[in-house]
Amino acid sequence: MLMLSVEAAHTRSLYASVSDLNFLIAHYLSQGPLREAAEPLRRQLEERAGAMLPLRYDWQGKQHSRAYDELAQEHPHIAPDELLRIMQALISRDSLALSTAGGTVLGRSHRRPRHATPDTLITS
C-alpha cells in the first residue's frame, strides 16, 4: 500500500514537472525570435487538455484543464525568459562538470554575450 502511494506521488511529481516545462517552453517561444513556432505548440498543448499544461483544482478537489493564456495571466511573475534563466543557473551551478564538455549543455563552446538574451543566444 505504501509503495502505491509513493508511486502515485512520483507520477504526480513527474506530471507537474512535464506540464510546467511545456508551459515554460511555450512561454519562452511566445516572446522570442521564434514566435511563429509558439502558436502551433500552444494549440497542441491546449488540444490535449489536462495532459500537457498544469491543471487547476477547484474547492472540491476536481481537476480542470487550463489554456496557455489563462496560465500566463495567472502567473505574471514568470517572465518569458524564465526557462533560459533556469538553464543559466543550472549551468553556472554545474560549471565544473560542464567545462569538460565544452562549457555548454550541448558540449560545444561559444562566447556568450555579456548580457545574454533569447535573441542573442540563437545562432545560425
From TrEMBL:
GO CC annotation terms, alphabetical: nucleus
Domain of life: Eukaryota
Lineage summary: Eukaryota, Fungi, Fungi incertae sedis, Zoopagomycota, Kickxellomycotina
GO BP: cytoskeleton organization; regulation of cell shape; regulation of transcription by RNA polymerase II
Domain BRWD/PHIP N-terminal: from-to ranges: 10-92
A Pfam family per the record: BRWD1_N
Renumbered residue ranges of the record's region Disordered: 104-124
Gene (name only): BRWD1
Stated name of the protein: Bromodomain and WD repeat-containing protein 1
